[in-house]
Each structure stands twice: as C-alpha cells, then as structure tokens.
C-alpha cells in the first residue's frame, strides 16, 4: 500500500486541489498527487483512482489481442511465423502492442510530475500514429495486392491467365486504373506523412489550441483512418478478386462485416471522447468507474479487434489460394514484403516520432519544470508529501 513517510495512506485529491492542467471536465474526485514516485504510480493500478479504469481498459486488451493474433500461425498452410509473408502482420502487431502498452502506461505514470504527464500524452499520440501505419502495411500486403489481381478476367478463373493478360499493360488489372499509381507509389508514404502530421498536431493541442482539443484530436485521427482504409474502400467498391466458387472467396466474404464493425466502434469511441458522456450528466458520479475515457478505451479496443479479424480473414483467403502464396513473388506483380519495406518503414517512422516527442518534451520541461517548483513553494501542504 501507499504510505506516507509519516505512515498514512496517500489521500486522493479533489479537482480543486490539483493544478488546473491536471483536471478533467466533470471529474471531481479521485485525483492522485501530482508528484508520485514511480513506485506509487505502479501501485496505484491496484487502488481505485480516476486513472485505474483507464489503465486496465488498455492493459488487459493486450492479452486478448495476443490470444487472437497468434491463432494465425497455427492455420493449415501457414508459413513459419518468421517468414516474409508475415512481416506485415508482425508490424501490425508492433503497432497495436505499442499503442495499448503506451496508453495504459501513460495513464498509470502521468502523476509523477507535470512534465512526465506531458511526455506520457505525447507518447500516447505517437503510438496511435505508428499504429495507423502498422495497419496500412497489413492492408497494403494482405488486402491491396488482391485488389491488384482482380477483375479484368471475364472468367475469374486461373490467376496465371490473368497475370499473362495483365503483363503487357500492368494497369489493366485494376478495376479502377487511377488507383494503380496511388496504391503502388503513394499509399505507404502518405500513411507515414499523415501519421507525422497527426503527432505534430496532437502534441500541439497540449500547448496551444487547448479549448477545442478533443475535437481537434478526434478529427486529426480521422484523416489517417481515411487514408489507411483506402484498400478496404477499394475492395468494397469493386468485386472480389477470388473466383466465386473458391474457398478463398468464402473466407473473405466476412471481411466487409468486420470492416463495418471496426468503423462503428471507432465512431462510438469518438462520440464518447467528444461528448464526455456519461460524466457530463452527473459530474462526480463517474469519477472512478464508468467515465467516458474508459468507454473510449473499450470502443477503440473493440475496433482494433474487428480490424484484426478483418486482416485475418484476408490472410486466410490468401493462404487458401495456394497459387498466390507459392511462390509469393511470381504471381503478384507487386514485390512481396521485405525487411526494408515493412520493419524498415516502421523503424524510420518510429524514429521520426521519437524525435518529435523529444522536441515537445523539451519544450514542456521548459514551460512546466519551473511551474511545479513554484506550485510546491506556494502550496507546501498540497504538494509535499509529509513535512
Ligand atoms: Zn487513454
């Protein structure tokens, strides 16, 4: 248990007792001291504060996600888990894992100091952006190439035939040829650029534009969703690349349902994030359990889970279509995944995001570093633990 030097458990604070930056709208009690030690922070996971629910609603999902994720490697016909075929899937895993871990740890550790609190939120925004690029890599290799093989064939039959037909004029295999250039050249780079713009804008809402921060953050994350989902939109607008009698076709029919559910959960999570329901209706009633941020976490996780199911559906369809898989590079005109085109992209992006976070953290330490010393001097009783 958390004990003071003088032997008493640390009390939780009211919204009027913490610095204004730390307060959340309509949350009145359950605030932790803004100068917890690392140990106090970690232990507060097991104590009802207004961050406890926020921690668990993104920490437990890590294990649920893992459970559904590893199933893929046991499927019949699946290559070994370290085969190039699975590079994009692992990058998707990295994106989701970092998102959930960073988010839960940010909620747990953000009461160490005002500066740490800022850094926690910057890391949170950074991992959300990296996650969208992880999704894009998975969409690009598992959903998009199927879009590329589709459609020109009147017979929907042998993929070999389609390939030969398509060979002289590579663009003909796209149902909507204008998309050829976009997918093959701009899709991944634009996902990366948009991710970086998002990190920059969201970090900035913590220093400027604070009044409309929830709306800006929500809108800013709509853009990467729209960009990274283009392969799915494409698939929904065109016909399936698989022969209607094939098992791949049957396997991939569930894809659209999972995608619509993924969108629905995203929409509901945005509603919670902007509306601040239910605590808006009864300020103080949902301080510890049931406030909007916890519902927001649950909905974002459900949307990730449906996205995982969607990606798995497409992976399964490819695995069932042996001509596509073996050998991977010969039938697709697109280059297969390589270390550089998957892990390399992710590494470059993460490095850029880390640099942005370092820059904003340095700015935050210049702004809030002196401020907390000031607060400690003004309110020694509130901010010093014991004498
Ligand atoms: Zn959160």
Automatic annotation (TrEMBL):
<dbReference type="GO" id="GO:0046872">
    <property type="term" value="F:metal ion binding"/>
</dbReference>
<feature type="binding site">
    <location>
        <position position="297"/>
    </location>
    <ligand>
        <name>Zn(2+)</name>
    </ligand>
</feature>
<keyword id="KW-0812">Transmembrane</keyword>
<dbReference type="GO" id="GO:0016020">
    <property type="term" value="C:membrane"/>
</dbReference>
<keyword id="KW-0862">Zinc</keyword>
<dbReference type="InterPro" id="IPR004254">
    <property type="entry name" value="AdipoR/HlyIII-related"/>
</dbReference>
<keyword id="KW-0479">Metal-binding</keyword>
<protein>
    <recommendedName>
        <fullName>Progestin and adipoQ receptor family member 9</fullName>
    </recommendedName>
</protein>
<feature type="transmembrane region" description="Helical">
    <location>
        <begin position="121"/>
        <end position="142"/>
    </location>
</feature>
<feature type="transmembrane region" description="Helical">
    <location>
        <begin position="186"/>
        <end position="203"/>
    </location>
</feature>
<feature type="transmembrane region" description="Helical">
    <location>
        <begin position="90"/>
        <end position="109"/>
    </location>
</feature>
<dbReference type="GO" id="GO:0038023">
    <property type="term" value="F:signaling receptor activity"/>
</dbReference>
<keyword id="KW-1133">Transmembrane helix</keyword>
<feature type="binding site">
    <location>
        <position position="293"/>
    </location>
    <ligand>
        <name>Zn(2+)</name>
    </ligand>
</feature>
<dbReference type="Pfam" id="PF03006">
    <property type="entry name" value="HlyIII"/>
</dbReference>
<keyword id="KW-0472">Membrane</keyword>
<feature type="transmembrane region" description="Helical">
    <location>
        <begin position="215"/>
        <end position="237"/>
    </location>
</feature>
<feature type="transmembrane region" description="Helical">
    <location>
        <begin position="53"/>
        <end position="70"/>
    </location>
</feature>
<comment type="similarity">
    <text>Belongs to the ADIPOR family.</text>
</comment>
<feature type="binding site">
    <location>
        <position position="107"/>
    </location>
    <ligand>
        <name>Zn(2+)</name>
    </ligand>
</feature>
<feature type="transmembrane region" description="Helical">
    <location>
        <begin position="343"/>
        <end position="362"/>
    </location>
</feature>
């Amino acid at each position: 248990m958390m004990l003071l030097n003088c032997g008493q458990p640390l009390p939780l604070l009211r919204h009027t007792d913490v610095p204004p930056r730390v307060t959340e709208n309509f949350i009145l009690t359950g605030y932790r001291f803004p100068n917890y030690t690392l140990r106090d922070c970690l232990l507060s996971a097991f104590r009802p504060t207004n961050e406890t629910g926020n921690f668990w609603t993104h920490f437990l999902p890590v294990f649920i996600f893992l459970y559904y994720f590893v199933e893929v490697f046991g499927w019949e016909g699946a290559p070994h888990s370290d085969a190039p075929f699975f590079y994009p899937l692992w990058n998707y895993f990295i994106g989701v894992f970092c998102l959930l871990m960073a988010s839960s740890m940010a909620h747990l550790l953000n009461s160490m100091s005002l500066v740490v609190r800022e850094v926690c939120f910057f890391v949170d925004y950074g991992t959300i952006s990296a996650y969208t690029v992880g999704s894009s890599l998975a969409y690009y290799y598992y959903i998009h190439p199927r879009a590329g093989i589709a459609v020109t064939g009147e017979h929907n039959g042998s993929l070999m035939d389609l390939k030969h037909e398509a060979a002289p004029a590579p663009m003909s295999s796209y149902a909507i040829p204008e998309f050829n250039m976009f997918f093959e050249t701009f899709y991944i780079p634009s996902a990366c650029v948009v991710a970086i713009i998002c990190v920059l804008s969201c970090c900035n809402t913590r220093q400027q534009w604070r009044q409309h921060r929830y709306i800006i953050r929500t809108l800013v994350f709509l853009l990467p969703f729209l960009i990274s989902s283009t392969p799915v939109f494409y698939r929904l607008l065109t016909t399936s690349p698989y022969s209607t009698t094939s098992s791949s076709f049957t396997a991939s029919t569930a894809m659209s349902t999972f995608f619509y559910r993924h969108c629905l959960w995203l929409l509901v999570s945005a509603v919670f994030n902007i509306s601040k329901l239910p605590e808006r209706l009864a300020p103080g009633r949902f301080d510890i359990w049931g406030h909007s941020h916890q519902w927001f976490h649950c909905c974002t996780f459900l949307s990730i889970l449906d996205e995982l199911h969607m990606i798995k559906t497409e992976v399964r369809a490819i695995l069932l279509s042996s001509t596509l898989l073996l050998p991977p590079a010969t039938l697709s005109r697109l280059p297969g995944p390589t270390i550089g085109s998957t892990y390399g992209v992710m590494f470059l992006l993460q490095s850029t995001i880390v640099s942005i976070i370092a820059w904003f953290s340095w700015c935050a330490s210049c702004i809030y570093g002196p401020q907390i010393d000031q607060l400690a001097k003004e309110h020694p009783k509130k901010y010093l633990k014991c004498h």
